């Protein structure tokens, strides 16, 4: 038996390709209830250390379900299947992601930054080329391959359907930074047993001691702390957003009055949305959003479909987080979210505003408590 019609990879085709050792390794610890199942080989994709969006992309690439011209031509023979970027070959998945001049250029650029498998490994063109490539690579190389192919696909679509402004060099540094940031966030979110989520990663400025639980993001990242206040009798609410950099310095603060809000939860989701939009507006490539509302964080983080009255707001949040995968969301304890809380209280009183580089004067005292980097005295 060869692989299934839809491109799914069967255990038997794994044998045929000599992949069984890697398959066995990947299946370790799993139930053997499905001896004929494909779970092991699909772990190459679903357990790859890459953002979920990239796994979905890799899965589409591995199942030949990316929208390439050869597939379109198959359904609509009038469509020319030739690649419109290089004009050299039929555009199938392997051409678009590996053989096309554009994909080659990005791979070449990436080789200046990353170690990748030899070119010959990329050129093996079978129906299962991607699973084969992934199965013969270590987990860290596997992640790099998925990042690389994902960006190749983006670059291609940007030229064919977008403004064509994405460049090979910028793409290379983008994915290098993205992978680095994703890996560091992931490491920090695992406790020593690799289970529960811990507070976001942090880096102390050199020569400083930390007095509060609030932690600064790593260099190159921005962190938005958000909070909301809601009055059950008047249904008025306020939301607050404070964005700080890796040194704990305030980039901007925002507080907003909301004249009518149905619930405390609605106000919390609105605060998260505001924080997300601010990170996106500031073009923070690797942003962290922190809220002290556990339910809201869980729903947004796990992309759970919500059926409460706030569902449309959550859906908007999911959409933004899907579009901006490099933004992560974390739960922070209340005591470490003091400034965002203070800003939300300002909003709740009926005021709206924003400041850059500092906090509004009524919160100056809070700023010292919440964001307290204290320089250690220099040793003489
Ligand atoms: Zn091409």
TrEMBL record:
Segments forming domain Reverse transcriptase zinc-binding: 33-105
Occurrences of domain RNase H type-1 (ranges): 225-345
Highest taxon of the lineage: Eukaryota
InterPro entries given in the database record: RNase_H-like_dom_plant, RNase_H-like_EbsB-rel, RNaseH-like_sf, RNaseH_domain, RNaseH_sf, RVT-Znf
CDD domains recorded: RNase_H_like
GO molecular function, one term: RNA-DNA hybrid ribonuclease activity
Protein name (database record): Reverse transcriptase zinc-binding domain-containing protein
Species this protein is from: Lolium multiflorum (Italian ryegrass)
Source lineage: Eukaryota, Viridiplantae, Streptophyta, Embryophyta, Tracheophyta
């Amino acid at each position: 038996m060869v692989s299934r019609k839809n491109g799914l990879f069967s255990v038997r085709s794994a044998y045929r390709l000599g992949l069984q050792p890697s398959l066995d390794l990947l299946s370790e610890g799993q139930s053997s209830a499905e001896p004929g199942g494909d779970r092991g080989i699909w772990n190459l994709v679903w357990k790859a250390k890459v953002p979920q969006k990239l796994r979905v992309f890799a899965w589409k690439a591995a199942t030949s379900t990316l929208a390439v011209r050869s597939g379109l031509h198959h359904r609509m023979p009038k469509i020319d299947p030739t690649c419109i970027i290089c004009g050299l070959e039929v555009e199938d998945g392997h051409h678009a992601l590996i053989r096309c001049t554009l994909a080659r250029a990005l791979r070449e650029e990436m080789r200046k930054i990353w170690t990748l498998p030899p070119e010959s490994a990329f050129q093996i063109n079978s129906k299962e080329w991607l699973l084969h490539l992934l199965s013969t690579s270590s987990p860290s190389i596997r992640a790099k391959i998925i990042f690389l192919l994902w960006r190749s696909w983006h670059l291609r679509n940007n030229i064919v359907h977008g403004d064509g402004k994405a460049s090979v060099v910028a793409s290379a540094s983008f994915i290098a930074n993205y992978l680095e940031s994703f890996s560091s966030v992931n490491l920090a979110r695992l406790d020593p047993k690799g289970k529960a989520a811990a507070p976001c990663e942090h880096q102390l400025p050199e020569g400083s001691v930390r007095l509060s639980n609030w932690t600064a993001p790593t260099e190159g990242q921005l962190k938005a702390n958000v909070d909301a206040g809601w009055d059950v009798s008047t249904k008025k609410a306020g939301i607050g957003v404070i964005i700080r950099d890796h040194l704990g310095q305030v980039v901007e603060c925002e507080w907003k009055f909301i004249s009518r809000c149905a619930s405390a939860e609605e106000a919390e989701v609105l605060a998260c949305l505001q924080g997300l939009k601010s990170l996106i507006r500031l073009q923070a490539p690797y942003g962290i959003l922190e809220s002290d509302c556990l339910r809201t964080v869980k729903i947004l983080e796990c992309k759970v479909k919500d059926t409460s009255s706030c569902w449309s707001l959550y859906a908007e949040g999911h959409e933004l987080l899907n579009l901006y995968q490099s933004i992560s969301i974390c739960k922070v304890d209340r005591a470490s979210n003091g400034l965002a809380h203070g800003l939300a209280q300002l909003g709740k009183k009926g005021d709206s505003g924003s400041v850059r580089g500092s906090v509004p004067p009524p919160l100056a005292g809070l700023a010292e408590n919440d964001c307290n980097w204290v320089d250690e005295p220099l040793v003489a």
